[in-house]
Design a protein that fits this description.
Shape: elongated
Largest sheet: 6 strands, antiparallel, barrel
CATH class of the largest domain: Mainly Beta
Number of strands: 16
CATH architecture of the largest domain: Sandwich
CATH topology of the largest domain: lipopolysaccharide transport protein A fold
Number of domains: 2
Order of helices and strands: HEEEEEEEEEEEEEEEE
Strand content: over 45%
Helix content: 10-25%
Length: 218
């Protein structure tokens, strides 16, 4: 009798344990299924996601010219270069030996050149590197007298904001304006609309007598 009772107790224990383990097995199975679906969906999304474009040129032009227009059809700027490389990932353009000409009805045209350059994807910022130079001819009045002397600005880096007709550099800069010669150790900002120059850092040079009454150099 005692043996039978023991066997019955053991059987009841096994049944009880089995009942208690069923939810655990179900939860484990659901977890495995959920994990499988997650892995499958992640892999599918990875396959469907577009591959990241490499920064490689998709086309190259030799001895080319780029002309960007305003909304009214007038020329905003024209850029000549020995080589143009366009990159599909960000639409930027690298230029060898760029020669940039800015046109603005409110200010005299500027010519900017360097050994290399880069145009951003929106075509509104041009960066120039290595022996960058800005030149602007002297401006004459109706009587033929000089109302604004010629300008020559040299630096190893220039950033041109085309829409603002403004350029900046953080590197040492040499500025020749008429007979005035100035240097600035930490760059300068030139605004072609009001034809003003703001120099930064240690500023040295000489201002010609003809420029002493002008406020464009500061």
């Amino acid at each position: 009798m005692r043996l039978s009772a023991a066997l019955l107790s053991a059987r009841d224990l096994i049944v009880t344990l089995g009942i208690r383990l069923v939810p655990i097995f179900i939860m484990a199975a659901l977890t495995l299924v959920s994990f499988w679906f997650l892995q499958k969906n992640t892999q599918d999304e990875a396959l469907l996601a577009p591959a990241k474009k490499k920064h490689e040129p998709d086309y190259i032009f030799i001895n080319a010219k780029l002309t960007v227009l305003n909304l009214d059809g007038s020329t905003k700027y024209r850029l000549l270069g020995k080589e143009f490389k366009h990159y599909a990932d960000d639409a930027s353009i690298d230029v060898k030996v760029p020669r940039l000409r800015l046109f603005n009805s409110k200010s005299p045209p500027l010519t900017i050149q360097a050994k290399t350059g880069q145009i951003n994807g929106d075509l509104d910022i041009v960066e120039l590197f290595d022996q960058a130079e800005v030149s602007r001819p002297q401006q004459l009045g109706t009587t033929g007298a000089v109302i604004d002397p010629s300008l020559l600005l040299s630096s190893n880096y220039l950033k041109v904001f085309v829409n603002e007709d403004r350029l900046i550099t953080h590197l040492p800069v040499l500025i020749e304006r008429g007979e005035s010669v100035m240097t600035a150790s930490q760059g300068a900002v030139y605004n072609n609309i009001d034809q003003s120059i703001s120099m930064r850092g240690d500023v040295k040079g000489s201002i010609a007598a003809s420029d002493t009454n002008r406020n464009s150099l500061r």
